[in-house]
Amino acid sequence: MKVLLVLTYYHPHVSGLTIYVKRLAAALARRGHQVTVLTSRYDAALPAEEVIDGVRVVRAPVLLRISKGVIMPAFPLIAWQLIREHDVLSVHLPQFEASLLALLGRLAKRPVILTYHCDLQLPKGWFNRVVDKVVFVSNYLAGHLAEAAVAYTQDFAEHSHFLSRFLDKVRVIRPPVLMPEPDAEAVEIFRAAHDLQDRPVVGMAARLATEKGVEVLIQAMPRLLEAFPRLKVLFAGQYEDVMGEEAYYRRLMPLIQELGPEHWEFLGILSQEQMPAFYAACDVLVVPSLNSTESFGLVQIEAMLCGTPSIASNLPGVRQPPLMTGMGAVTPIGDAPELAEAIIGIITQKKEYARPRNQIEAMFSLEQTVSGYEKLFRDLLPERAQTDTPAEARET
């Protein structure tokens, strides 16, 4: 099967969406499918085309950037050529080009599948509100043209401003999670390197972005330090030069600096090999997201696979990992006092939130996700293209 995946940003850009698609693409390629990713050349230093993990990556040149979006005049022609070369078109939203892609897919008589990762909600400002609406209209038109729309959870689909309009097309496929078991020695080395002995540790794995609700954790710190004077926050992820988040960075950094390195440490972007030790070194992971630009929080499942419970905002989809597993808690959106009390509760009673790793693996795995997409593709493909599907994939 020849599969074309399209999204605005791809590796080496790091976000929950890019990690999701990179894992999906590589796994499909390993199963014998011919996989291409069409994305933007958001950084001119990146090659226009390369192969990553057996996946062909094609980057359309960017003329200019508007907020977090990009303008790519050559994109329609490149997309049209690639769509005709493939059997199925998988479009990952939100993205400005969604309606164009869905229309081209229809014209080429290829099945169009949307995966809706989250709502788009840019930072405040009249221009960003216009961009939000333009992208929503494009996504909405794509929804009418597409054969199916993938959601992480039914909870998010039913509450989403976008997906709730297309529930008859929604297929729920749980997101791909890939997390090795933590190595005990590596965890101890990590703890020593970051001075974590004999102190509670709160983890956060995200970009320093408006929707992530980092300020809610900052506001919870006085109560947390009252309960645990040596408590420390470890923030894993990009925190400097995050596109479109310069004002947010300037607003939060003075507050974080007041806490001091004794209580807040930025780790930067960690490699896949470093993440298990990070998660295992934390007593609890927090996802205090503020709006539906967060739809699940893959990091919650990753942390749980390393034995660490999570606390999520009471957002559709985001609340599902702790609710489904019992390995964590849910707090009201933007409520710093409630977040503080939930953190204190888990740190003092962590054993009550422990679950066997295999129990989490039974609910979430990369292989489950890939099999779900393969079945969806096969259901929508004409019989001619079915013959191109590798036998091992058809038997999954």
Structural key phrases:
396 residues, alpha/beta, Rossmann fold, 2 domains, eight-stranded mixed sheet, 16 helices, globular, disordered C terminus
What does this structure look like?
- The protein is an alpha/beta fold and 396 residues long.
- The chain folds into 2 domains: 205 residues, 3-Layer(aba) Sandwich (Rossmann fold), CATH 3.40.50.2000; 177 residues, Glycogen Phosphorylase B (Rossmann fold), CATH 3.40.50.
- It has 16 helices and 16 strands.
- The strands form 3 sheets. An 8-stranded mixed β-sheet has the order 3-4-2-1-7-8-9-10, sandwiched between helices.
- The longest helix has 20 residues.
- The radius of gyration is 21 Å and the shape is globular.
